[in-house]
Structure formats: structure tokens, C-alpha cells
Amino acid sequence: MSEKSKYNFKCLEQKCTTKACHIRPQVTVTLGDLGRWTAQGYLMNIIPGVSMKMPTSEEDGLVLEMARKPLEEKPESTCCIFYNEKANGCEIRYSRPISCRTYPLEFNGEKYYLSSKDCPGVGHGEISKEVLQAARNLAEQEYKERTETDATLPAIYSIIMTELIRQSAEAMKKRSEDEKKEQDTSKSEKSDENPTTENGKDT
Prior knowledge:
two-stranded antiparallel ribbon; 12% strand; alpha+beta; 43% helix
């Protein structure tokens, strides 16, 4: 494929045969996506479909991504939770993550490249300099948001976990104090029910 034709792109949408963007291993989500969904008023509708991938090694980091579900036609494979197999399309197409809007063009901080060779829309249609530049700008924005999310997410996670631990400790302390008060009250009530004389005999 020539340098020019590989940047030609025409999304086939419902007519797509590979579903490459829906079944790729990971659909990342950025903090910018969360901000856009909040501004659009869609956050509470989309957030149940977002998951946090925990690191499995010291080299890995926290990652926000779309949750996965098994493909109906091929249960051993998974796809983005918002992929509608019957319609062969995305249920949140107009609010999809920025990683979906740039797909398959990506930017790694130095150069642009195609993240998938399975996308059938690549090499089709015509692309003007203006459209290509807009696509590159979006790919750069996705890279910036992704790197900022990678850097910020661990700190946000730590703040949330610290606050949860603090609240849990306060709840346990309050519960302990309440239990102590109940025990003291119970002892006092029993003492009132069974008064004794100074020599230890019942009156």
C-alpha cells in the first residue's frame, strides 16, 4: 500500500466485514472522555460500561477501558460492551471514546502509524490535506489525553483508596464507640435491676 493510499480512509460502518474496531483487544478510555461525557450529560449512561484494568506486573499501569462481552456468534472472542452485533455498529457512536474516533490512525509522540491492518476502510475513499490534518490533530490529541491519563490515574486511584480507608477506619471507630456505649448501658440497666446492700446482700 502506498504512503498516500494508506491514509485514505472510509468507514464502512454497518457494512464493515471485520468489526476490527469493535473486537480489538482493548478500547481505552481517557479522562478527557469522562469530561466530554459529563458535558454531554451521558456519563451515567456510559460509566457502567467502563472498567479499570489493574496492573499485573511492575511495568503495567492502571488503565481505563471499555468493558468486554462475548461475541454472540463467536463466544470464545470478546468485543467492546457497546458493540451491537445485530446492527453491526456502535451503540454510542456519537459519544464514543477518542481512541475510537481516531482508529486506526495513531500517534506515538513521534510519528503517525496505522494500529490495525484489519480495518477494511483503510485505502478506500479520497482524503484531502485538510481532512488528513484534522485526523492527525485528533490522533495527537488522543496521544496527549492517553499519556495524561496514564500519569494521573494512579494518583486519583490512590486518593480514592486513601479516602475509603479513612472512612472505613472512622466507621469502625464509631461502631466500637457505639458498642462500648451499649455495653455500658446494658451493665447499668442490670445494676439497676439487681441493687445490693453495702454488705453485698439483696435489699
